[in-house]
Amino acid sequence: MKYHLMAVLLALAGSSALADEVVKKPVDVASTPAALQTVIDSIHAEMAPSKRYEFINPAERRDVDTDFATMMTLMTNAGSVAAMKQPERIKLFNTQEHVNGILTHTDRNRLICERRSKVGSNLPVTDCRTLADVELNRSETQKFMQDRSNDGSRVSAQALWQKEQKGN
To answer: Are 132 and 108 in contact (CB under 8 A)?
Structure first.
């Protein structure tokens, strides 16, 4: 029993280390406009296919770009975070948190856990996968279903054509 409890604790410690890696905020405080531009450029680079934020949808991308423009305007007008007045700092912080929320939600490394019963069992288990795994599975399933429906329509069309040929 002690060994079982120890194994569970070690597994939880390992998963929390992985979760800490996922939870890091994408947009950190940049103190100057040049530093902020560097952060913006690196985030945009990570929005490419097979990169960290590849699953961001167009509406979320527009929101992020609008927030980046707001942050850059605030930073450029003040020159630095240190030179900002309190209301501008608060607006910068809130805008930054909005961007972080969107990026964290679309992070390909974000863990998604579900608790469900396996087929043939009443005992629920917790299944955790990354967003990238979930999206890959979803796209493969859609492709499979589309291929199957296309195969079925081809077979039906061929059968209909053969019937027409026999009738003529």
So the answer is: yes
